[in-house]
Amino acid sequence: MFGLIPRVVWMKWFPGEGPDAIDAQNRMPLEQNSLLLEREGKLVVVEVGIGDKMSAKERGMYEQADGGIHAALGAIGCDARDVSAVVVTHLHFDHAGGLTRRGADGSAVLTFPNAEIITQRTEWEDALANKSTMHKTYLRDHLGPQVAERVRLVEGEAEVLPGIRVVPMAGHTWGQQGVVIQTGTGPVCFVPDVMPTKRHCRPTCNMSYDVEPYTSMLSREAMLSRAHAEGWTLVLDHEPGWPVFRVERDEERGGWGLVESDTAIKRK
Ligand SMILES: [Zn+2]
Fold first, then answer.
1. Coil, strand or helix: which one is 71?
2. What's the mean pLDDT when you consider all of the chain?
3. Helix H or strand E encompassing 182
4. What is the dihedral of CA 210, 213, 217, 219, to 10 degrees?
5. Which of 97, 218, 229, 260 makes an SS bond possible with 93, Cβ 3.0 to 4.6 Å?
6. Do the Cβ atoms of 14 and 21 come closer than 8 Å?
7. How far is the CA of 178 from the centre of ligand 1 (A)?
8. In the chain, what are the domain boundaries?
9. CATH classification of 7-260 is 3.60.15.10, yes or no?
């Protein structure tokens, strides 16, 4: 998760014991955060997590705690069939696996049968071509023909739905995008794997499976500087604690700092 940064350094960012610490199998706490947006009766989901199709062995590797996006929506009384659009930042399994779920006969079925699925064209094409540094991350069971039928491909920055913009943030993948939502209390940006947790708010904090680490570093700087200039509230995709922050200049370190914020977001 921290690329070139030596373990002895990043271990200091996970002090002590408990849910915030590194476990005996060298695993760190991470979540797959999603946003549920509602405007004029329309529901939009940003990011859908791993889903529920992993084998027992894979679930053990990740120690996946919940039943995926479908169960999470159900738990708050939301029917996935009522969602009209899904925006995914990129198509790695831990972000887009939840586009499908395990159907009654065990095969993958659409989680959001009535939603269009919005992603960058580059990301879609790279996913189908399996252009990744990890062999098993663009999984066929969430990229099949039923998903292809519902995909809307976007090129570059664009307003994809009223008040919802996608902003390219390349580096982790070539086609990765952030999602910026206009709210009554200012813009909220769902941040993809350009800065997955608050501990990645450093120029060199790339991940070892970024396709272009240097590009990722530039994208992170551009995202943080735009967030500061335009007053974005950030929601981090893998932050295990409270994932909502605003950006401040860190004069001491000469970079950016994150300050927890409670603006606009409800945790469910
Ligand atoms: Zn990820």
1. helix
2. 92
3. strand 177-183
4. -60
5. 97
6. yes
7. 13
8. 7-260
9. yes
Ligand 1 centroid – CA 151 distance (Å): 20
Residue 193 CA to ligand 1 center (angstroms) comes to 5
For residue 246, give both structure tokens: 């605003």
Cβ neighbors of 84 (< 8 A, separation 6 or more) are: 42, 43, 44, 114, 115, 116
Average pLDDT across each block of 10 residues of the chain; the chain has 268 residues. List them in order. 92 79 86 93 95 82 79 94 98 96 92 98 97 89 95 98 97 98 94 97 93 97 98 96 94 90 73
Cα 40 to ligand 1 centre (Å):
30
pLDDT tens string 58-100: 877 777 776 789 999 999 999 999 999 999 999 999 999 999 9
Backbone φ, ψ for residue 64 (5° rounding): -65, 130
Query: Between β-strands 116-120 and 151-154, what pairing exists: parallel, antiparallel or unpaired?
Result: parallel
13 Cα to the center of ligand 1, angstroms: 19
Q: How many CA atoms lie within 13 A of 39 on its CB side?
A: 13
Confidence at residue 264, expressed as pLDDT on a 0 to 100 scale? 63
CA 225 to ligand 1 centroid distance, Å: 22
Q: How far is the CA of 95 from the centre of ligand 1 (A)?
A: 6
| Residues 262, 82: Cα–Cα separation, whole Å | 27
